[in-house]
Amino acid sequence: MHHVDRNSGILNAEEKFTLEERRSYQETFLREVITVAFGAGTPLKAAMYGKRLPPENIRNIEDLQKLPITKKKDLSEGQKANPPFGGFLTVPISDLLRIHQSPGPIYDPVGKIHDYWRWRTALYSVGFRPGDLVVNTFAYHLTPAGHMFEEGVSELGAVIIPTGVGNTETQVEIMKNLGATCYIGTPSFLMAIFKKAEEMGVNVPTEFKLEVGFLLAEMLPESLRKRLIDEYQMIGRQAYGTADVGCVAYECPEVNGMHVHYDVIVEIVDPNSGDVLPKNEPGEVVVTCNNKIYPLVRFGTGDLSSIVDDPCPCGRTGPRLTRIMGRADEVTKVKGMFVHPSQVQKVIDSHPEIAKGRLLVDRHQDTDSMTLEIELKGEVPEGIERVVEETIREVIKMKGSVRIVAPGSLANAWKTIEDVRKWD
Ligand SMILES: [Zn+2]
After folding, report:
1. Cβ < 5 A residues, ion ligand 1
2. Which domains occur in the chain, in start order?
3. How far does residue 125's CA lie from ligand 1's centre (Å)?
4. Distance from the CA of 319 to the center of ligand 1, in angstroms?
5. Cα-to-centroid distance, 420 and ligand 1 (Å)
6. Element (H or E) spanning 110, and its range?
7. Distance of CA 343 to the CA centre of its chain
8. Model pLDDT for residues 401-422, shown as the tens digit of each residue
9. What are the pLDDT digits (tens) for 266-298?
10. Looking at CB atoms within 10 Å, which of 14, 138, 195, 369 has the fewest?
């Protein structure tokens, strides 16, 4: 498979839709999805009844804003109250291909449809080609991940080598003996395999045939992407999806964001007000997919990103999600420990003189740092910073500094924790 052109070509004509073509295509499937979900009596029907909204009133993408957002919590609670699928499934359970359990727990049904999770297009875009030998290191049980990517690889016409998680030494042997050309998994596990290979005396750049890494489920630092090219002569690319809905967006050779799949309508929503935000503004990624078997309309992923739609030189016209910036529920890992927004709020509430505050999480020289920015109600009490820093230490069990900011400067800060760490 050497000297394969992994950067040119576009798999599907739909990826080159004009703005009007994409809108018309998406609104057609949107109306179908709404009709099916309503007809099957899914929770959407109850929500629409409550608002006296007949299905005919949802005709275009803007009309989606009349409908509630389905939160992950609605799914897990709905499934508990009305097992196994919370009433979201529109076909008899016997018509399914598989049922996965993902953490939550949430049951994920898979319909008997080619490329059900839509990864085929993404795999081509990141550089996979028919005939590739693909090592898939995602787990094949108690998560949809393994099968999800396996399906996409098969639909693309590439060869799957299902290795799952762990067994690093065996992974090294398989990659070397079979001459695997592509890897699917987390960036950190790929590096763990390389490290193990080097310990085993394998010269990775010459003895491995890896050319593309499809790197998911974790942040991919730009420094690591560069290292893969420089040290291992391989492409590292990312995509974004979830266990509930499958592929949402994927990188192209330009590596300037992730093109939204044409079968997915993405809205970026203010997590507090629920309002749809304009392009370039960060908010929660809310998706409506072309899935009539398990239609999750306006599914709130809980992930934060923003949309850009300037033309991409690759020729794909789909708008692009920028880097995933964290979780809308804001639970953030700092120095390996989870910090909850409620802890930050507790610090703020302990000091009546604070009008508003937010925690900035940053990173300097590979070490995380926390700064609580506070707006004060009146005069600045002498030594207030030290006193609040002491509260941070008590409540969050970590050292953080305090910075007083001018009244009004946090007016537009809707997050209690703002993660500003740069990973490149
Ligand atoms: Zn592109």
Report:
1. 252, 254, 312, 314, 316
2. 13-18+89-327 (3.40.50.12780), 332-419 (3.30.300.30)
3. 9
4. 9
5. 26
6. strand 106-111
7. 25
8. 999 999 888 877 767 888 888 7
9. 999 988 789 999 999 888 999 999 999 999 999
10. 195
